[in-house]
Amino acid sequence: MWSNLSAYFTDYWLIAISTPIYVVLITLEVLLSTYQHRKYYALKDSAMNMWLNIVNASIGMFVKFAVLLIMAWFARFDLASQLPNFIYWICLFFGLDFCFYLEHRAEHYCRLLWAVHVTHHSSEEFNLTTGFRSSVFRPFISFWFFIPLVILGFKPLDILLMDAICQIYGIVVHTRYIQSMPSWFESFFVSPSHHRVHHASNVIYLDKNMGMVLIIWDKLFGTFQEELETEKVVYGLTKNPEEPYHPIKIIFHEWIQLKQDFFQQGISMRERLKYLFNPPGWSHNGKTLTAKEMRKLNDLKI
After folding, report:
1. SS3 state at 189
2. CA distances from 223 to 43, 170, 175, 299 (A)
């Protein structure tokens, strides 16, 4: 196990150099933002993004061995290893990006998983440091969505490597400086414009553009929304946290609300379970609304 991990970090040098790349890009964006008076960065918000990333990385290191052991247990077949090396990595890329899409969509449509993911959306800013605003408990969730890849024969360490590479791309699309990419690019890949939509609290933009590298999954499964000139993006949540810079409450604020909803008086066990597994915003009395319900209400008003 130790030798495998050592080989992972030795052979896959891209992961090792990603941190200085981030530092350079963030520094450039901060300097440009300051020089042009665009106010894309807020010190407290950026500091919170870094804090959440440190917590996520710490948890990830703690569970990494357990994740590898569980994934190794599921490695029962050996189909992918029969592929030529180049085809193997191409298939792994598409497979992992699709698994991430499924994970991400589940996080937006299941309240329990949303409680894990919501931290990433809780910033009212959008810049490169937002990419580091980690859903700190993601290491406990994500690997379950990768198990189909293991069953197909992809090696656990290769899966973790591909996830790390895709995460690098997923970070750099958190920018307002690139307004749009060429149309051919935006037809296949997630662009900064696509991801700005994903971080929006506007009703029309909610739960859209779930892809990490490829936007094709959103276009195939009906979760795509382009950024509209007539609808300026408002970043954050439909109800932002009361204490956005508290290092602990920013992680657990949705869990606290979920607990209150689950244990409220006068509802059935079936309704309690719906608070856990239905989309965020679902309520038994219509006091709060899901994104789908808000869009329907918005259409009626129009």
Report:
1. strand
2. 33, 18, 21, 18
Reply yes or no on whether the pLDDT at 19 is more than 70.
Answer: no
Tell which residue, 28, 53, 299, 60, has the closest CA to residue 175. Answer: 28
Q: For residue 209, give the amino acid letter.
A: N
d(CA 290, CA 206): 10
Q: Measured between alpha carbons, how far is 60 from 136 in angstroms, rounded to an integer?
A: 8
- Contact predicate 287/260, CB 8 Å: no
Q: What is the CA radius of gyration of the chain?
A: 20
The phi, psi pair for 17, rounded to 5°, reads -90, -5
**Residue 200 in 3-state DSSP?**
strand
Q: pLDDT tens digits for 219-237? A: 999 999 999 999 999 999 9
What ranges in the chain are assigned the alpha helix state H? 2-11, 13-35, 43-74, 85-109, 111-121, 142-151, 156-172, 183-188, 192-198, 216-221, 249-262, 269-277, 291-301
CB neighbour list of residue 225: distance below 8 Å, 6 or more residues apart: 197, 204, 205, 208, 209
Residue ranges per structural domain of the chain: 2-221
pTM over 0.85: no
Rounded Cα gap, residues 170 and 195, in angstroms: 9
The answer for residues whose C-beta is within 8 angstroms of residue 11's C-beta and 6 or more apart is: none
Q: Please give the average per-residue pLDDT across 84-99, as a whole number.
A: 93
Residue listed under structure tokens 């000139």: 229
CB 163 within 8 A of CB 113: no
